[in-house]
Amino acid sequence: MTTKKWIDLNDKVVIVTGGSMGIGEATVQDLYNCGASVAIFDVASPKKEVLNKKVNFYKVDIREKEEIEDAVKKVLKDFDHIDALVNNAGVTRPRILVDYYEEAPQYELSEDDFNFMVDINQKGTYLVSQAVSRVLYKQQSGVIVNLSSCAGLIGSRAHSCYAATKAAIHAYTMSWAKELGPFNVRVVGVAPGILDRTPANNDEKYRAQAYGRGMGLDKKPEDFFKGYKTSIPMARPGHLYEVSNLICYLISDHASYITGVTIPVAGGKTKG
Protein backbone atom coordinates (compact mmCIF):
# COMPACT_ATOMS: atom_id res chain seq x y z
CA MET A 1 0.00 0.00 0.00
CA THR A 2 1.12 3.54 -0.73
CA THR A 3 2.07 5.12 2.60
CA LYS A 4 3.75 8.27 1.40
CA LYS A 5 2.91 11.35 -0.58
CA TRP A 6 3.32 10.59 -4.27
CA ILE A 7 1.12 13.30 -5.81
CA ASP A 8 0.28 16.78 -4.59
CA LEU A 9 -3.29 17.14 -3.30
CA ASN A 10 -2.49 19.84 -0.75
CA ASP A 11 -5.40 22.15 0.08
CA LYS A 12 -7.93 19.91 -1.67
CA VAL A 13 -11.06 18.85 0.21
CA VAL A 14 -12.56 15.55 -0.90
CA ILE A 15 -15.80 13.81 0.10
CA VAL A 16 -15.63 10.00 -0.04
CA THR A 17 -18.87 8.04 0.28
CA GLY A 18 -18.55 4.60 1.81
CA GLY A 19 -15.14 5.61 3.13
CA SER A 20 -15.06 3.37 6.18
CA MET A 21 -13.97 0.12 4.54
CA GLY A 22 -12.70 -1.51 1.37
CA ILE A 23 -11.86 0.72 -1.58
CA GLY A 24 -13.26 3.71 0.29
CA GLU A 25 -10.96 3.22 3.28
CA ALA A 26 -7.94 2.81 0.99
CA THR A 27 -8.93 5.95 -0.89
CA VAL A 28 -9.28 7.99 2.30
CA GLN A 29 -5.81 6.91 3.41
CA ASP A 30 -4.26 7.60 0.02
CA LEU A 31 -5.87 11.04 -0.23
CA TYR A 32 -4.69 11.93 3.27
CA ASN A 33 -1.16 10.75 2.53
CA CYS A 34 -1.13 13.03 -0.51
CA GLY A 35 -2.11 16.08 1.51
CA ALA A 36 -5.88 16.26 1.04
CA SER A 37 -8.49 16.86 3.71
CA VAL A 38 -11.17 14.16 3.62
CA ALA A 39 -14.83 13.99 4.62
CA ILE A 40 -16.11 10.44 5.03
CA PHE A 41 -19.82 9.92 4.33
CA ASP A 42 -20.92 6.51 5.62
CA VAL A 43 -23.43 4.77 7.87
CA ALA A 44 -20.61 2.78 9.48
CA SER A 45 -17.96 4.51 11.57
CA PRO A 46 -14.35 4.32 10.34
CA LYS A 47 -11.50 3.06 12.49
CA LYS A 48 -10.62 5.59 15.20
CA GLU A 49 -7.02 5.86 14.05
CA VAL A 50 -8.20 7.11 10.65
CA LEU A 51 -9.73 10.28 12.05
CA ASN A 52 -7.70 13.43 12.72
CA LYS A 53 -7.91 17.16 12.10
CA LYS A 54 -7.83 16.56 8.33
CA VAL A 55 -10.16 13.54 8.19
CA ASN A 56 -13.71 13.93 9.49
CA PHE A 57 -16.56 11.44 9.65
CA TYR A 58 -20.17 12.37 8.90
CA LYS A 59 -22.81 9.72 9.47
CA VAL A 60 -24.85 9.80 6.28
CA ASP A 61 -27.30 7.42 4.64
CA ILE A 62 -26.85 8.30 0.97
CA ARG A 63 -30.43 7.26 0.26
CA GLU A 64 -31.66 10.21 2.33
CA LYS A 65 -31.58 13.60 0.59
CA GLU A 66 -31.85 15.74 3.73
CA GLU A 67 -29.00 13.89 5.47
CA ILE A 68 -26.79 14.45 2.43
CA GLU A 69 -27.58 18.14 2.13
CA ASP A 70 -27.00 18.70 5.85
CA ALA A 71 -23.66 16.87 5.68
CA VAL A 72 -22.50 18.92 2.67
CA LYS A 73 -23.25 22.09 4.64
CA LYS A 74 -21.22 20.75 7.57
CA VAL A 75 -18.27 19.96 5.29
CA LEU A 76 -18.33 23.52 3.97
CA LYS A 77 -18.43 24.84 7.52
CA ASP A 78 -15.58 22.58 8.66
CA PHE A 79 -13.30 22.87 5.63
CA ASP A 80 -14.53 26.05 3.88
CA HIS A 81 -14.75 24.50 0.40
CA ILE A 82 -15.13 21.23 -1.55
CA ASP A 83 -12.87 20.23 -4.44
CA ALA A 84 -13.90 16.68 -5.23
CA LEU A 85 -16.39 13.92 -4.59
CA VAL A 86 -15.64 10.19 -4.76
CA ASN A 87 -18.87 8.23 -5.20
CA ASN A 88 -17.57 4.98 -3.78
CA ALA A 89 -20.48 3.66 -1.68
CA GLY A 90 -22.03 0.60 -3.25
CA VAL A 91 -23.53 -2.79 -2.45
CA THR A 92 -24.13 -6.09 -4.18
CA ARG A 93 -26.20 -9.20 -3.64
CA PRO A 94 -25.27 -11.92 -6.12
CA ARG A 95 -28.58 -13.07 -7.64
CA ILE A 96 -29.83 -14.81 -10.78
CA LEU A 97 -32.95 -13.68 -12.61
CA VAL A 98 -34.65 -17.08 -12.32
CA ASP A 99 -33.68 -19.98 -10.06
CA TYR A 100 -33.48 -22.54 -12.85
CA TYR A 101 -31.42 -24.86 -10.62
CA GLU A 102 -34.45 -25.08 -8.29
CA GLU A 103 -32.31 -25.64 -5.20
CA ALA A 104 -31.93 -22.21 -3.54
CA PRO A 105 -34.82 -19.82 -4.25
CA GLN A 106 -33.24 -17.23 -1.92
CA TYR A 107 -30.66 -16.57 -4.64
CA GLU A 108 -33.27 -15.56 -7.20
CA LEU A 109 -33.44 -11.78 -7.68
CA SER A 110 -36.23 -10.40 -5.50
CA GLU A 111 -37.84 -7.00 -5.48
CA ASP A 112 -36.14 -6.30 -2.14
CA ASP A 113 -32.73 -7.18 -3.61
CA PHE A 114 -33.41 -4.98 -6.63
CA ASN A 115 -34.51 -1.97 -4.57
CA PHE A 116 -31.58 -2.34 -2.15
CA MET A 117 -28.95 -2.23 -4.90
CA VAL A 118 -30.65 0.46 -6.99
CA ASP A 119 -31.31 2.73 -4.00
CA ILE A 120 -27.70 2.75 -2.82
CA ASN A 121 -25.70 2.32 -6.01
CA GLN A 122 -27.77 4.42 -8.37
CA LYS A 123 -30.06 6.72 -6.39
CA GLY A 124 -27.42 7.42 -3.73
CA THR A 125 -24.85 8.40 -6.33
CA TYR A 126 -27.33 10.78 -7.95
CA LEU A 127 -28.36 12.41 -4.66
CA VAL A 128 -24.82 13.02 -3.39
CA SER A 129 -23.61 14.21 -6.80
CA GLN A 130 -26.48 16.66 -7.10
CA ALA A 131 -25.84 18.18 -3.66
CA VAL A 132 -22.09 18.52 -4.24
CA SER A 133 -22.46 19.74 -7.83
CA ARG A 134 -24.45 22.74 -6.59
CA VAL A 135 -21.22 23.78 -4.85
CA LEU A 136 -18.82 22.85 -7.64
CA TYR A 137 -20.54 24.61 -10.52
CA LYS A 138 -20.82 27.86 -8.56
CA GLN A 139 -17.11 27.87 -7.75
CA GLN A 140 -16.31 26.92 -11.39
CA SER A 141 -14.07 23.99 -10.45
CA GLY A 142 -14.16 20.47 -9.12
CA VAL A 143 -14.02 16.75 -9.84
CA ILE A 144 -16.51 13.93 -9.39
CA VAL A 145 -15.10 10.40 -9.46
CA ASN A 146 -17.75 7.71 -9.88
CA LEU A 147 -16.95 4.13 -8.90
CA SER A 148 -18.45 1.91 -11.54
CA SER A 149 -17.37 -1.70 -12.08
CA CYS A 150 -16.18 -3.88 -14.90
CA ALA A 151 -19.45 -5.74 -14.35
CA GLY A 152 -21.20 -2.56 -15.50
CA LEU A 153 -19.15 -2.48 -18.70
CA ILE A 154 -19.25 -6.15 -19.73
CA GLY A 155 -22.02 -7.74 -17.62
CA SER A 156 -21.60 -10.45 -15.02
CA ARG A 157 -23.37 -13.75 -14.48
CA ALA A 158 -25.25 -13.82 -11.14
CA HIS A 159 -24.77 -10.05 -10.83
CA SER A 160 -27.28 -8.68 -13.36
CA CYS A 161 -28.87 -6.09 -11.06
CA TYR A 162 -25.54 -4.94 -9.65
CA ALA A 163 -24.09 -4.75 -13.17
CA ALA A 164 -27.09 -2.70 -14.32
CA THR A 165 -26.62 -0.17 -11.52
CA LYS A 166 -22.94 0.17 -12.41
CA ALA A 167 -23.77 0.57 -16.11
CA ALA A 168 -26.00 3.42 -14.98
CA ILE A 169 -23.03 4.96 -13.15
CA HIS A 170 -21.06 4.81 -16.40
CA ALA A 171 -23.92 6.62 -18.15
CA TYR A 172 -24.05 9.21 -15.37
CA THR A 173 -20.33 9.82 -15.85
CA MET A 174 -20.61 10.47 -19.58
CA SER A 175 -23.75 12.59 -19.26
CA TRP A 176 -22.73 14.68 -16.26
CA ALA A 177 -19.35 15.38 -17.88
CA LYS A 178 -21.24 16.99 -20.76
CA GLU A 179 -23.48 18.96 -18.41
CA LEU A 180 -20.80 20.18 -15.99
CA GLY A 181 -17.85 20.59 -18.35
CA PRO A 182 -18.74 24.21 -19.21
CA PHE A 183 -18.35 25.00 -15.49
CA ASN A 184 -14.84 23.49 -15.33
CA VAL A 185 -16.14 20.48 -13.39
CA ARG A 186 -14.80 17.11 -14.51
CA VAL A 187 -16.65 13.80 -14.09
CA VAL A 188 -14.68 10.59 -14.45
CA GLY A 189 -15.34 6.94 -13.75
CA VAL A 190 -13.22 4.14 -12.31
CA ALA A 191 -14.25 0.54 -12.97
CA PRO A 192 -12.51 -1.96 -10.66
CA GLY A 193 -12.39 -5.61 -11.60
CA ILE A 194 -11.66 -8.43 -9.17
CA LEU A 195 -9.78 -7.15 -6.13
CA ASP A 196 -8.34 -8.51 -2.90
CA ARG A 197 -11.04 -9.71 -0.55
CA THR A 198 -12.58 -7.15 1.82
CA PRO A 199 -14.94 -7.54 4.82
CA ALA A 200 -17.90 -6.77 2.52
CA ASN A 201 -17.12 -9.86 0.43
CA ASN A 202 -18.24 -12.41 2.98
CA ASP A 203 -18.71 -16.16 2.56
CA GLU A 204 -22.43 -15.77 1.89
CA LYS A 205 -21.79 -13.59 -1.16
CA TYR A 206 -19.34 -16.09 -2.58
CA ARG A 207 -21.86 -18.88 -1.95
CA ALA A 208 -24.60 -16.98 -3.78
CA GLN A 209 -22.27 -16.18 -6.67
CA ALA A 210 -21.14 -19.79 -6.97
CA TYR A 211 -24.73 -21.02 -7.02
CA GLY A 212 -25.69 -18.48 -9.67
CA ARG A 213 -22.83 -19.67 -11.86
CA GLY A 214 -23.77 -23.33 -11.63
CA MET A 215 -21.05 -24.33 -9.16
CA GLY A 216 -23.40 -25.61 -6.47
CA LEU A 217 -23.70 -24.53 -2.85
CA ASP A 218 -20.46 -25.94 -1.46
CA LYS A 219 -17.78 -24.01 -3.36
CA LYS A 220 -15.35 -22.25 -1.02
CA PRO A 221 -14.33 -18.58 -1.44
CA GLU A 222 -10.66 -19.48 -1.81
CA ASP A 223 -11.55 -21.59 -4.85
CA PHE A 224 -12.53 -18.41 -6.70
CA PHE A 225 -9.07 -16.93 -6.22
CA LYS A 226 -7.43 -20.06 -7.62
CA GLY A 227 -9.34 -19.57 -10.85
CA TYR A 228 -8.25 -15.98 -11.28
CA LYS A 229 -4.81 -17.10 -12.46
CA THR A 230 -6.41 -18.17 -15.72
CA SER A 231 -9.30 -15.68 -15.99
CA ILE A 232 -7.24 -12.51 -15.41
CA PRO A 233 -4.39 -11.78 -17.85
CA MET A 234 -2.23 -10.43 -15.01
CA ALA A 235 -2.97 -13.67 -13.12
CA ARG A 236 -3.96 -12.05 -9.81
CA PRO A 237 -6.64 -9.95 -8.16
CA GLY A 238 -6.00 -6.23 -7.95
CA HIS A 239 -4.96 -4.45 -4.78
CA LEU A 240 -7.13 -1.74 -3.25
CA TYR A 241 -4.35 0.83 -3.48
CA GLU A 242 -4.16 0.27 -7.23
CA VAL A 243 -7.67 1.69 -7.42
CA SER A 244 -7.12 4.48 -4.89
CA ASN A 245 -3.93 5.58 -6.68
CA LEU A 246 -5.92 6.15 -9.86
CA ILE A 247 -8.59 8.06 -7.94
CA CYS A 248 -5.94 10.37 -6.47
CA TYR A 249 -4.47 10.98 -9.91
CA LEU A 250 -7.87 11.79 -11.42
CA ILE A 251 -8.57 14.31 -8.65
CA SER A 252 -5.19 15.95 -9.13
CA ASP A 253 -4.43 18.80 -11.49
CA HIS A 254 -2.38 16.37 -13.60
CA ALA A 255 -5.68 14.99 -14.94
CA SER A 256 -7.13 18.39 -15.80
CA TYR A 257 -8.27 17.40 -19.32
CA ILE A 258 -9.69 13.96 -18.49
CA THR A 259 -13.47 13.82 -18.22
CA GLY A 260 -16.43 11.78 -19.42
CA VAL A 261 -14.61 8.43 -19.44
CA THR A 262 -14.59 5.32 -17.25
CA ILE A 263 -11.20 3.68 -16.74
CA PRO A 264 -11.04 -0.06 -15.95
CA VAL A 265 -8.69 -1.27 -13.23
CA ALA A 266 -9.01 -4.96 -13.93
CA GLY A 267 -5.68 -6.49 -14.91
CA GLY A 268 -6.88 -6.91 -18.48
CA LYS A 269 -9.98 -8.97 -17.60
CA THR A 270 -12.70 -8.54 -20.25
CA LYS A 271 -15.05 -11.46 -19.59
CA GLY A 272 -17.82 -11.29 -16.97
Radius of gyration: 18 Å
- What is the CATH architecture annotation? 3-Layer(aba) Sandwich
What topology, given as strand order, has the largest sheet? 3-2-1-4-5-6-7
What's the end-to-end separation, in Å?
27 Å
Total strand count, please?
7
Q: Shape, please?
A: globular
Helix content: 40-55%
CATH structural fold name:
Rossmann fold
Strand content: 5-15%
Helix and strand content put the structural class at alpha/beta
- Uncertain stretches: none
Number of helices: 8
Largest sheet: 7 strands, parallel
Order of helices and strands: EHEEHEHEHHEHHHE
CATH class category name: Alpha Beta
Question: What is the total domain count?
Answer: 1
Core attributes:
single chain; 272 residues; alpha/beta; Rossmann fold; 7-stranded parallel β-sheet; 7 strands; 42% helix
Give a written overview of the molecule.
A seven-stranded parallel beta sheet has the order 3-2-1-4-5-6-7, sandwiched between helices. Helix content is 42%, strand content 14%. The chain is of the alpha/beta class and 272 residues long. The radius of gyration is 18 Å and the shape is globular. The two termini are 27 Å apart. The protein has one domain: Rossmann fold, CATH 3.40.50. It has eight helices and seven strands. It has helices at 22-33, 65-79, 111-139, 150-154, 160-180, 203-212, 221-231, 240-251, and strands at 13-17, 37-42, 55-59, 84-87, 142-147, 185-192, 262-265.
